[in-house]
């Protein structure tokens, strides 16, 4: 009796992300400039959890999470000002 081997392609997410998903791979320069990437980088540099930053900026965790994941790409000016203040940055 022969063996049945099922070969599944890599997930769509991994294919779409290109090098970014690989461990130790450097993110491409274009991705480094997105609001989502910069927000996460500044939050982590400040040593804040998503919950702590949301509280400091008087924003919902869900809204902040959406911004960090890129689900919302264009934040309101007021949101940017609140985040900048909570992170100690100038808007």
Key terms:
91 residues, mainly alpha, 434 Repressor (Amino-terminal Domain), 6 helices, 0% strand
Question: What is shown here, in short?
Answer:
Helices cover 54% and strands 0% of the residues. The protein has 91 residues and is mainly α. The longest helix is centred in the middle third of the chain and has 11 residues, at 35-45.
Notes on the structure:
It is a single chain. The protein has a domain at 29-87: lambda repressor-like DNA-binding domains (434 Repressor (Amino-terminal Domain)), CATH 1.10.260.40. It is built from six helices and no strands. Residues 12-27 have low confidence and may be disordered. The protein is mainly α. Helix content is 54%, strand content 0%. The longest helix is centred in the middle third of the chain and has 11 residues, at 35-45. Helix 4 (50-57) packs across helix 6 (77-87).
What is the CA-CA span between the terminal residues? 68 Å
Count of helices? 6
Strand content: under 5%
Radius of gyration, CA atoms, in whole angstroms: 18 Å
Give the CATH architecture of one domain: Orthogonal Bundle
Q: Structural class per helix/strand content?
A: mainly alpha
Enter the CATH topology name of one domain: 434 Repressor (Amino-terminal Domain)
pLDDT average, as an integer? 79
Strand and helix layout:
Blueprint: H1 12-17, H2 29-32, H3 35-45, H4 50-57, H5 61-69, H6 77-87
